[in-house]
Write a structure and sequence with these properties.
The complex is a heterodimer of chains A (309) and B (317).
Chain A: H1 2-6, H2 16-50, H3 54-59, H4 72-77, H5 83-88, H6 98-129, H7 135-144, H8 150-163, H9 170-174, H10 182-193, H11 197-205, H12 210-221, H13 223-239, H14 242-247, H15 256-265, H16 274-302
Helix pairs in contact in A: 2-16, 6-10, 6-13, 11-12, 13-16, 15-16
Chain B: H1 3-6, H2 20-62, E1 65-66, E2 74-75, H3 79-85, H4 88-121, H5 126-137, H6 140-150, H7 157-164, H8 179-204, H9 208-216, H10 221-249, H11 253-258, H12 270-280, H13 284-309
Classes of the chains: A mainly alpha (309), B mainly alpha (317).
Subcellular location (chain A): Cell membrane
GO cellular component, one term (chain A): plasma membrane
Family (chain A): Belongs to the binding-protein-dependent transport system permease family.
């Protein structure tokens, strides 16, 4: 199948029905090729811009290669240039320190992913593998939580975070997402229910307690969905903008998405510092591309299960 | 479904009718599980009550108050709602948001469906599936900035191409008719791959023999799409639609970094107006009232879509 698909134009020897198909296939592959181009070309263009000087961009806007190849955009984004130098190169000289925002993003996303998945897994275990009074009712309540759009809870949650004096802290950004999402609980429960009862009973006969079963049997057996969910949660929290924008005011709690928007807003009088801005954009995007590349195969094949998100 | 999920919590899966001792043991074990379950559920329960249930109740409460964050909330009854109904900017926001959702969802659904079908009928390549997912790894902020640059009126490559073809440059994000469609399409670029993979997963559930049988009967791909793919994909498509529409109504990030609501409120989507009311003018009560309105609209759309598309039923088997 794949071999036929890869050589769509080599088909004229087969019978007519097949040939008509192959012409259609050639057209279909063309469309697919266009889709890939539209998907990937913007990334190349951003890289090309980040490696150009602002003067070069103005003089030579259509050159497919970097205009005046330089690393100055990246230096500016990473705060390696003095304000004077930066302004001379068309930057704002506003002193944004992307190393710090990178670290902040890593801290927030790691904290959220680690805690949220672990606590959700614990709850999912209780909902799927333990027997207790009122279990289905409590689960129904959690499911109803799926109906509330996250955005509705943001304003009241901000008021709460302010009352807790956690505004402008990384912990304040992470806190509302630390414990659970109805989706994570629902998603993991599905997988935990599919672990065969015999496996659990064998462990029970070996004298393992329910707690040990959770760590030694259930978690390892559901490792693929747990990894998929973790990567998607990491990406979601890394990319979140609205909530950190509300909570964070200063460098100490600024994450990459918010910093990028500020970089964009600090437009110098000479025009937007496209070279620096695209460099910063790449710095913000690269970690997720690497993370995805490591787990791509697993994620791509199990993403269908995340349909509710 | 396993035995555990379908049997009442207080009974063992194996029937021990008549045997008193095992029944007692069973009850003892139930109690044991109860304590353990309480421990296992405690963190998630805390999160649910404090950061989901409580803010939902509080959000509704705040919508009936005047609240500026500094002094305690003051009950004003329906004032915020009366103001909302008479606020032309609110209605403008709602109109702009609906326009955005229609373009965004319309284009995205058709494109995602096309990509999913191509991925299913043409190739099962995991690499291609990975590629179409890449924009989804970017934040909305990044996607917004990428296209802000490409579509820049003076220097953007998009406008350079348009100009080279002999057309006038288009100020995509600075013009009040172009801005909303542009933002809608930027977000299609970011989300279409993810949506396509969800639909692709749905397509995998359709047995391949159906296509083989139709092929033997001489059916074209076009015919197979309408006669096999569409009817059998319908339940998945319906769920994906509900989900993407809800997401689409909450557009904020892209607007914030590309147009900041302008020009002249042309892209002042509801969520952006709500944010401005709360954090720009410190009218948390009014912002909450508009959030409630959005929640009502979303719930109504969900119910309506669910009914219309019969999302809960399948035509397969």
């Amino acid at each position: 199948m794949a071999a036929v698909a890869a050589t769509p134009t080599k088909a004229p020897t087969v019978h007519p029905v097949r040939r008509r198909f192959s012409l259609g296939r050639a057209a279909a592959w063309t469309v697919m090729g266009l889709i890939v181009l539209i998907t990937l070309l913007p990334f190349y263009w951003i890289l090309r811009t980040a490696l150009s000087t602002n003067a070069g961009l103005g003089a030579d806007p259509t050159n497919p290669l970097p205009a005046d190849l330089t690393g100055s955009g990246f230096e500016r984004a990473l705060g390696l240039q003095s304000a004077k130098e930066a302004i001379a190169q068309g930057g704002a000289g506003g002193g944004l320190d992307f190393w710090r925002y990178l670290l902040n993003s890593v801290i927030v996303s790691t904290l959220i992913t680690g805690c949220q998945i672990f606590f959700s897994a614990m709850a999912a275990y209780a909902f799927s593998r333990l027997r207790w009074r009122g279990r289905d009712k409590v689960f129904g309540l959690f499911l109803a939580g799926l109906m509330v759009p996250t955005i509705f809870t943001l304003l009241p949650n901000f008021v709460l975070i302010k009352q807790l004096h956690l505004v402008d802290t990384l912990f304040g950004i992470a806190l509302p997402s630390l414990f659970m999402t109805p989706f994570a609980v629902f998603f993991l429960r599905q997988f935990f229910m599919n672990v065969p009862r015999e496996v659990e009973e064998a462990a029970l006969l070996d004298g393992a307690g329910k707690v040990k079963i959770f760590f030694r049997v259930i978690l390892p057996m559901a490792s693929t969905p747990i990894i998929t969910l973790s990567v998607l949660t990491y990406i979601t929290s890394w990319n979140d903008y609205f909530w950190p924008l509300m909570v964070s005011y200063s460098d100490s709690s600024r994450v990459l998405t918010v910093a990028l928007a500020i970089f964009r807003a600090q437009t110098p009088a000479t025009g937007v510092d496209w070279s620096g801005l695209t460099a910063a954009t790449l710095i913000a995007a690269l970690p997720m591309l690497v993370l995805f590349a490591c787990f791509a195969r697993r994620i791509v094949s199990s993403i269908g299960f995340t349909g509710i998100k | 479904m396993t035995v555990a999920s379908s049997s009442p919590p207080s009974r063992l899966p194996l029937s021990d009718a008549g045997a008193v001792a095992p029944a007692k043991k069973a009850r003892a074990r139930t109690r044991g599980d109860g304590a353990l379950a309480a421990v296992f559920i405690a963190p998630a329960m805390l999160g649910f009550l404090v950061f989901l249930l409580w803010p939902t109740v509080r959000g509704i409460y705040l919508s009936f108050t005047r609240f500026n964050l500094l002094t305690p909330a003051e009950w004003v009854g329906l004032d915020n709602y009366v103001r909302m109904v008479n606020d032309p900017i609110f209605w403008g926001s709602l109109t702009v948001t609906v326009e955005y959702v229609v373009i965004n969802i319309g284009v995205q659904t058709v494109a995602a469906l096309a990509i999913a079908v191509l991925l299913q009928r043409l190739t099962q390549s995991a690499l291609l599936r990975g590629i179409v997912l890449t924009p989804y790894l970017m934040s909305n902020v990044v996607a917004g900035l990428v296209w802000l640059w490409i579509l820049d009126t003076q220097l953007g490559i998009g406008n350079e191409i348009i100009s080279a073809l002999g057309f006038d440059r288009i100020p995509f994000l600075a013009d009040d008719t172009w801005a909303i469609p542009t933002i809608a399409l930027i977000n299609v670029w970011r989300h279409v791959g993810y949506t396509a993979l969800l639909l692709f997963a749905g397509l995998q559930a359709i047995p391949n023999d159906m296509y083989e049988a139709a092929k033997v009967d001489g059916a074209s791909e076009w015919r197979m799409f309408w006669r096999i793919t569409m009817p059998l994909l319908r339940p998945v498509l319906a769920v994906v639609l509900i989900m993407t529409v809800i997401g689409s109504f909450q557009v904020f990030d892209t607007v914030a970094v590309t147009t900041a609501g302008g020009p002249a409120n042309a892209t002042n989507v509801l969520q952006y107006y709500i944010y401005g009311s709360a954090f720009g003018r410190f009218q948390f009560g009014y912002a909450s009232a508009m959030s409630v309105a959005l929640l009502v609209v979303l719930s109504a759309i969900t119910v309506l879509q669910y009914r219309l598309t019969r999302a809960g039923q399948t035509d397969l088997g």
